[in-house]
Amino acid sequence: MKPINVGLLGIGTVGGGTWEVLNRNAGEIERRAGRAIRITRVADKALERAKEIVKGGASVTDSAHDVTRAPDIDIVIELIGGYTIAKDLVLDAIAHGKHVVTANKALLAVHGNEIFAAAQKQGVMVAFEAAVAGGIPIIKALREGLSANRIEWIAGIINGTSNFILSEMREKGHTFGAVLKEAQKKGYAEADPTFDIEGVDAAHKLTILSALAFGIPMQFPKAYTEGIAKLTREDIGYAEELGYRIKLLGITKRTPKGIELRVHPTLVPTRRLIANVEGVMNAILIKGDAVGPTLYYGAGAGSLPTASAVVADLVDITRLITADPEHRVPHLAFQPDRLSDDPVLPIADVETACYLRMRVLDRPGVLADIARILADRSISIDAMVQKEPEEGEDRVDIVMLTHIALERNVDAAIVAIEALPTVVGKVTRIRLEELL
């Protein structure tokens, strides 16, 4: 049978890994796909480096349009990244009848609805397994493996950089700033780490997972995003004392009022498997009504793990090319004309338990004042730790865990607590999830 010809846009870290995996495992891949899959065209601005990688195994150009418009190309792999040029090239490839594979979570989270609509109109597929959690086959699990389930919620460690930082802060007792520098030195964090440490990267991925889980359009602007830069060694230590670990989680949940879509530091009980995922590894916990909770763990980034997902998409599309186009797996798991209009909830309407830490003057009645403010806003206390003041100090930390409460009530309580004359500075609030 005629081989499938692939055009590759960008042969950097992931592109180079894709070239390596596709060539190294060519025989195995052909046996799985039913026909050979080969990269015949590569586009990259760094022409000499690209030629050195392919060593004559494919034609190399610095013009991406030479690939997206080439009549002999069946599938285009987009590994350029970003929102703008990548979007134009993906849409150009689709317009010229090419199937597309991409690892670009930012592109899909922001422009996915437009891209999928264009692909549907042209009768081509857009595959994106590598866009979320690297080598973990989480997209296929949601679109196919769990298709019998009504998904109730997803909670995931989906940014390895942030997880590495939190793991090192807990294990070594270092500050956030010191561990961030270490992460940059090891290559786990970019020179500008904003997208990772502020939760933006995780929110891109969570937007995709939420659309797949609940059959809603991509709605990245509605994702609540809070990063880890303000977390302290003290908070990580107090969480440990109370039987919890702090993880940056992406959480999306179906509720009677709508869909929760939020990324933030979260206390997780240490007995949960996901609380023990350390370093740069990723893990995603999915709760289905029939199957219950299932956990997916593995490398969330890196050349070969991500390439594994890219090549898996190539195999899937190769199989689908000869299948009935009307019965392909839908891009967002649900048929395009059956997407839901369930609203994405603003964070003020979300209900969670919370960790609250406040520094107070060591005076009688302080705790009673704080408890009264919480009670007036229907917030009950689940557990509390009050530290003894150090010698010569008149200030002490109070740490509380609350039961589940409405976010806007907690916000109001924090404002009132910070206004007390006996409270010094700001209240630290970290949300808590039992993940049952």
Proportion of residues in β-strands = 25-35%
Q: What is the name of the CATH class of the largest domain?
A: Alpha Beta
Question: Number of helix segments?
Answer: 15
N-to-C span = 49 Å
**Radius of gyration of CA atoms, rounded to a whole number:** 24 Å
Descriptive overview:
The chain is an alpha/beta fold and 436 residues long. It has three domains: 4-127, NAD(P)-binding Rossmann-like Domain (Rossmann fold), CATH 3.40.50; 138-299, Dihydrodipicolinate Reductase, domain 2; 350-432, ACT domain (Alpha-Beta Plaits, 2-Layer Sandwich), CATH 3.30.70.260. It is built from 15 helices and 17 strands. It has helices at residues 13-24, 26-33, 47-54, 65-68, 85-95, 105-122, 138-145, 160-172, 176-186, 194-197, 200-214, 233-241, 303-321, 366-376, 407-419, and strands spanning 4-9, 37-43, 59-61, 75-78, 99-102, 126-127, 151-157, 224-225, 244-255, 258-269, 281-288, 292-299, 351-361, 381-386, 395-402, 405-406, 423-432. The strands form two sheets. Strands 7, 8, 9, 10, 11, 12, 13, 14, 15, 16 and 17 form an eleven-stranded mixed sheet that branches. Strand 11 (281-288) and strand 12 (292-299) form a beta hairpin.
What structural keywords apply?
436 residues; alpha/beta; Rossmann fold; Dihydrodipicolinate Reductase, domain 2; Alpha-Beta Plaits; six-stranded parallel beta sheet; 17 strands
